Amino acid sequence: AKSLKRERIFQDRQNPMEMMTNDMVLARYRFPKTAIIDLLKLVAPQIVRATQRNNAIPPIIQLLTALRFYATGSFFYVDGDVHGISRSSVSRVMQDVSTILGKLAVDTIKFPSTANEQDEVKQGFYEMSKFPRVIGAIDCTHIQIKTPKENEERFVNRKNVHSINCQVVCDHKMMIRSTVVKWPGSTHDAFVLAQSNIATTLAAGVAGDGWLLGDSGYPLRSWLLTPFLNPGTGPERRFNKAQKRCRCTIERVFGVLKSRFRCLDKTGGGLQFVPEKCVKVILSCFYLHNLAKQMNLPDDDEDRIQQVLLDEFDDEVNVNGVPSGTDVRNAVLITYFS
């Protein structure tokens, strides 16, 4: 009996989830037990860590440590929850797991490239809004970080906080399909786009007759349609309304992302790492967002999501349209909204 009891205590220390209900696990780590076990199988071979004391931190503890940090943004909560891990170990584990999940994000976040994939996305957006041929909604979001030691002024954004400006394209299901996470907070959304692979790809016509939808902070292009700045006619207002309905998906992605993973939201206090490490954490959360969407996990508390969306508001205007963009937008206006 003593042996069984001792074994049970050892197991619990190996895997704290054994002591929790599924609802407790979901609330604490943002994923159900089954998903965490599946994720563990994926990452465990890479996060096995030997220590000099010959009692390595078990992979499940490492994964739960990272998930708890993503969920709260706080080392305080992580320290209190996970058995016997020092603050320095938490930080090291966080970076190890984020390196692995960040690489998974890069490997798995893919823009719809085949005709079938693009047709599914177009159909999804059309059913949502009656706006034709949309292959993605694009926007940027700022992730607050601690004051960097190098090039500090480049990271100060329009709201006067230090951040990384992250470009994201999502589909109609709120899956992240393209992302750029590297530019300091002072960088304008339009510049981030201009330097990105997706701009080069779409400008070259790879997406056929499809286009992205963006807000007025982006330049009007034949492959990126923005709203009419001063809609004066019924068709222009209908165009803007349908265009906004599609763009709500990317805004909603940011709301869901920052409420599920509080480390990305300013209420989590900002990411307290150097920018290069922040990038890995951000990409990890993007990967986990897609995982949650694939599993149809419920979104977080609606009030919290709406609060994030209020903070996301940005009224930047870009008037650098090109004639081909104006021609395409006018053609859509006449064909579908007049």
UniProtKB/TrEMBL annotation:
Of the GO CC terms on this record, one is:
cytoplasm
Membrane-spanning residues where?
none
List localization entries.
Cytoplasm; Nucleus
List residues of the DDE Tnp4 domain: 138-290
**Cofactor(s) named in the record:** a divalent metal cation
- Record's keyword annotation contains Cell membrane: no
Keywords noted in UniProt? Cytoplasm, Hydrolase, Metal-binding, Nuclease, Nucleus
Q: What does this protein do?
A: Transposase-derived protein that may have nuclease activity. Does not have transposase activity.
Q: Which family does it belong to?
A: Belongs to the HARBI1 family.
Recorded protein name is Putative nuclease HARBI1
What species is this protein from?
A: Didymodactylos carnosus
